[in-house]
Amino acid sequence: MSGNQLAILENKRGGSYWIIKEDSIDYMLPKQNLKINEYNYSTVEVLFECRNYDANYSDYKLVKPARVQMVSGGTWQLQERGIIEFY
Fold first, then answer.
1. Cβ distance 29 to 18 under 8 Å?
2. pTM for the model
3. Looking at the record's lineage, which domain of life comes first (predicted)?
4. What DSSP assignment string belongs to the chain?
5. Which terminal residue of the chain, N or C, has fewer Cβ atoms less than 10 Å from its own Cβ?
């Protein structure tokens, strides 16, 4: 993601990500059952650095959650991409 791109996320029932707060910092991570494939990879890649991605493998581990900041009720802005590693 280049420095001038802006990712705005909306709170959506049944969405694919969790937002958790720890020490006044909001983090976003994929839900445990999120399958990453060719249909959603472009979205995931905006939110997370995807290491060793191969369309034939969908198993991954979260190395670092993304950082987000609430900009209004139910709307979040990506502050820093997270990292996902595929294996």
1. yes
2. 0.86
3. Bacteria
4. --TT---EEE--TT-SEEEEEETTEEEEEE-TTPPP-TTTHHHHHHHEEEET-BTTB--EEEEEPEEEEEEETTEEEEEE-EEEEE-
5. C
Q: Look up the domain containing 80 and give its range.
A: 8-86
Question: Which amino acid is present at 22?
Answer: E
| Total domain count, the chain | 1
Give domain status of residue 31, yes or no: yes
The candidate with the shortest Cα–Cα distance to 25, out of 59, 69, 55, is 69
Residue with tokens 């369309």: 55
Summarize pLDDT for 7-51 with one digit per residue, the tens.
Answer: 888 888 888 999 999 999 999 999 998 999 889 999 999 999 999
